[in-house]
Design goal:
The structure is a homodimer of 345-residue chains. Chain A contains 12 helices and 16 strands. Chain A is α/β, with parallel strands linked by helices. Chain A folds into 2 domains: 177 residues, NAD(P)-binding Rossmann-like Domain (Rossmann fold, 3-Layer(aba) Sandwich), CATH 3.40.50.720; 153 residues, 2-Layer Sandwich (Dihydrodipicolinate Reductase, domain 2), CATH 3.30.360. In chain A, the strands form 3 sheets. Chain A has a 7-stranded parallel β-sheet with strand order 3-2-1-4-5-6-16, sandwiched between helices. In chain A, a hairpin with a 2-residue loop joins strand 14 and strand 15. In chain A, helix 1 crosses helix 10. The longest helix of chain A has 14 residues. Chain A is globular, with a radius of gyration of 20 Å. Chains A and B meet through helix 6, helix 9, strand 15 and helix 10 of A and helix 6, helix 9, strand 15 and helix 10 of B. Strand 15 of chain A pairs antiparallel with strand 15 of chain B, so a sheet runs across the interface.
Chain lengths: 345, 345
């Protein structure tokens, strides 16, 4: 089988994890890498990944340089959560006739929050005959696609609630800092105001995707303020200690409104010292469904899996900007990988 | 929106439940009904459904009579678990240019157990430009499609196990009888030998579908003997009592083998007096995933939902015999139903 030729766009924390996993996959070949960080440009990808070999792939500042001599099939894009930043990057990849899978949270379902950008990306992708997808574990799976999946067993649905609780002590230090762990409450609030702490990005996108899949015309999506979770006793991770009364992490909710009712409520909690980690989905309907994944699916591990596992499906998909709800049921890509690529050909 | 014109093939227990649900759906119109039972032929569908109105649809013995004057879009087929019986029925529907969704368990994934029949149905469906799907809650959802979905969050998988435990007291009397509730052990064994009790049909199909989706080349699928679950104390449903020492229901397992390892193990249990009802999926891999739906999704309620909710996706799908793993992520069909039908057009 011809290998899938992959360009990495973004070799940060998540991009590096994806790269290392792709290096293990016999069906994948990394043929180029882009990163904007000055300390990475010009270095060999192997060096930047911290693995014990050079890969003969120099990290470029621009996509033009990364794929000038080699054709690639798909770009794996992992730079920012926000479309404002990723939009020009993604369009440049499309213009190089590359399929794109991105971890950009706002790309997971941009049709509600950024309909103009969504339509532009869709049109450009169709023009270039490539497929673009934003995915990851969340948004992309536990708080949206899995909800959509479970809804299929329901005749009627009144309300959907999901709760994701993460013990931040199990995550990387940058994640712990991103959620404000260890800060005084005033400092947390200040960083929220300055948008240095943004909380989880994607709840609004997840709600919009669920509503679209189910056929609900959403009237409004309310993103509640990001709240600090205060340590009621000293808690700690390997990397940092949180005194009683300081911020252990954060909690945020978003609500989708149909006919004045809160029909979709997503509740995201990430803090050091969470007693239980879980992903909970509750559907009030016919039948009621209560589903729990315990512990919750690890964010980084799951995102690396989702991005990689969607590669065959994106390569086989019709052109355009697609979202998880439009694609065949996702699956692991194990064993005889030819079978993953030959399905729709 | 033009309504979806539906022919019912089989107006038994499950077919009747589907019919009643479809009557509530504004986008659906039942235009014909077929049943082989002498006491139903010639009667009005409303009478057979036991609802307080006539529907102007006479139950026919043959599909030719049911759709002679009216074109239909799709047939909902609910007669038997076994392809041996349903194959000629399904081909007759295809030959009338009808899309087909069937509750036939063996049709959920016939490529492993009945490859020749599967290929024939696929070819015939393509010839007539229609799509054929076997689905339901199980097979079709809790022990296969949902497993495939969850596998997408995994980088590696060593083993998959699912357990479905049903308290038969919550189900219809025919279901309770089908699993042997109330019988003496010897009588249970006799009926197993005579194939009067077949147990749950579909475990082998579910394993084969999971393996295909994940890319595992399955070497063998072992369907273990159906075992009686013996009442350790008196248990009862509304309809029947089971003395201590008698059969309360049954348990059966099937195992998918890859490279001499049991990589997929499905465990189905249905008996009166089960303390807990649940659907459990355990994936040993990176990451490990343990997912529990509690109580388990009700078989009849879920099957009616699955069959109905797949109608828009089957109408939009390319022709051929498809299985759940080939189709877009399933979802409830609520609210603005036009949106469910206009997606891929």
């Amino acid at each position: 089988m011809k290998k899938v030729r992959i360009v990495l766009y973004g070799v940060g924390a998540v991009g590096s994890l994806i790269a290392k996993f792709l290096l293990e996959k016999e069906w994948a070949e990394i043929v180029g890498a882009v990163d904007l960080a000055k300390d990475k440009i010009g270095k060999d990808l192997g060096t930047v990944l911290g693995i014990n070999e050079t890969l003969g792939i120099s990290i470029s500042e621009k996509i033009e340089r990364a794929v000038s001599t080699k054709d690639a099939d798909i770009a794996i894009h992992a730079t920012s959560s926000f479309l404002k930043e990723t939009y020009p990057q993604i369009t440049s990849l499309i213009e190089h006739n590359l399929n794109v899978i991105s971890t950009c949270e706002e790309l997971a379902y941009p049709y509600f929050t950024s309909p103009t950008i969504a339509k532009k990306i869709d049109a450009l992708a169709k023009q270039h005959g490539v497929t673009v997808l934003g995915t990851g574990i969340n948004p992309g799976f536990v708080m949206d696609t899995l909800v959509i999946m479970l809804s299929a067993a329901c005749q009627k649905i009144e309300k959907i609630q999901t709760v994701r609780v993460i013990d931040a002590a199990t995550r990387r230090l940058p994640f712990q800092k991103k959620i404000g762990a260890g800060l005084k409450i005033e400092e947390f609030q200040k960083r929220i105001e300055k948008k240095e702490i943004t909380g989880h990005v994607g709840l609004v996108q997840s709600i919009a995707m669920i509503a679209d899949a189910l056929g609900w015309n959403i009237e409004d999506i309310l993103a509640e303020p990001v709240l600090p979770v205060i340590a009621e006793k000293p808690v700690e991770s390997r990397e940092l200690k949180v005194e009683t009364g300081r911020v252990a992490g954060l909690r945020q909710r978003a609500k989708g409104i149909v006919k004045d009712e809160e029909v979709i409520v997503l509740d995201f909690q990430a803090y050091i010292g969470a007693k239980e980690e879980y992903d909970l989905i509750t559907i009030n309907g016919v039948p009621n469904i209560e589903q729990k994944i315990q512990p919750c699916i690890h964010g980084d591990v799951g995102t690396v899996a989702m991005v990689t596992n969607m590669i065959p499906k994106i390569i086989s998909a019709p052109p355009g900007l697609v979202t998880m709800k439009d694609l065949p049921v996702p699956s692991a890509t194990l064993g005889d990988v030819k079978r993953h690529f030959n399905r729709n050909s």
